[in-house]
Design a protein that fits this description.
This protein has one domain (4-153). It is 66% helix and 0% strand. It has six helices and no strands. The protein has helices spanning 4-28, 55-71, 76-99, 111-123, 125-128, 132-153. The longest helix has 25 residues, at 4-28. The protein is globular, with a radius of gyration of 15 Å.
Length: 158
């Protein structure tokens, strides 16, 4: 089991990767909001990912992961890779939600958060010094924080 600081570092990377795109979207609104799926519609008539998954969000989340990693005296490349994996898992969950005909931005508690937490935590467990218990506890804390922050995501800021 890792020290609590290693788990906090992992949690900070998760929060940076996943909160930054939301904050940037709220501030930038529709500016530079090119969709990751370029508007691609699948055979089921639904978008591949939806309008909420943007290149702006991916880039800002990856940069935030690199910055937070550097501030924690970890490799910025580790932070960027961690964030990229988390955001990739988030995009995959959006793809699945579109196939289930859930609207972009619709909450699917647990499903929304677990992939984006568990995938990078598992892949980067060794360099972050995390064990299985650390991964599960960190993911659970991330889910709780994300659920608590959900009202902020759905509220107009300006």
């Amino acid at each position: 089991m890792a020290s609590w600081t290693q788990s906090l570092h992992a949690l900070a990377l998760l929060v940076a990767a996943n909160a930054t795109p939301v904050v940037v979207a709220k501030v930038a609104r529709d500016r530079a909001a090119l969709a990751l799926d370029f508007g691609r519609v699948m055979r089921d008539g639904e978008r591949l990912l939806g309008a909420h998954k943007t290149w702006r969000g991916l880039v800002s989340g990856v940069l935030a992961g690199a910055l937070v990693a550097a501030l924690l005296e970890l490799s910025p490349w580790l932070g960027a890779g961690f964030a990229a994996l988390s955001l990739t898992a988030d995009a995959l969950s959006s793809c699945i939600k579109r196939r289930l005909r859930l609207k972009p931005g619709a909450e699917f508690t647990g499903f929304d958060q677990l992939g984006e937490a568990l995938l990078p935590l598992a892949v980067f467990a060794a360099p972050l010094g995390l064990g299985v218990t650390d991964i599960l506890v960190t993911a659970a804390v991330f889910v709780a924080l994300d659920v608590a922050a959900a009202p902020l995501r759905h509220r107009r800021w300006f």
